[in-house]
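Pilot study result, target chain (205 residues):
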Amino acid sequence: MPAQKYTTVIFDFGGVLGPRSNNWSSTHHNISKLTGLPPESLAKTLEAMTFDMETGRASVQDFWKKVIEMSPNKLTKEELEEAYEANFRGNDEVFEMAKELKSKDYRVAILSNASKRWMSFKITRFHLREIFDKIYSSASLGMIKPNPEIYKYVLHDLGVAPDEVIFIDDLPENIKAANALGITGIVYKTPERLRGDLKALISNF
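Predicted structure:
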């Protein structure tokens, strides 16, 4: 497959550039300790609200309000937000790949199913606007992956054809939806494997 045809690489955030939002037993284990709620309970609560949060119908503050109602401990939304964000780390190796691609004149973008608040936090924490040409969050667009319309919107906004794009996501169903539109997809597993997958598609990477 000729590498020269690609002009744009789009990255998911959760599970690729950084941790997934619902990792209560690992990345965000401190929230379980702070609230006295088991990771499974936090995961179930967020899962029930995820669609509304990721389409902009509910906010992160609504989620923290629910957690406070469930918790036996007296807490504020601000305390929970601060604790949640404190343990948030980026995937440095994948960030470096995005920077390498940009240095080789490829356009790089983010397409993430994310609430407005958490995407805003990620933009600030990881200086995303300094690296990525465009950042798309589902809550701002009112639709989520794997809805084909979100991919169509991004393609139109970027002004690119599907066969110019490589899309990286950790969820196979999101890659399958992109593939159906003619976008080349990579299911993310590890940084090492991603680098190999990109090298197979882009000769000068």
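One observation from the pilot: The CA atoms of residues 97 and 195 lie 8 Å apart. A full batch analysis is planned for the follow-on phase.
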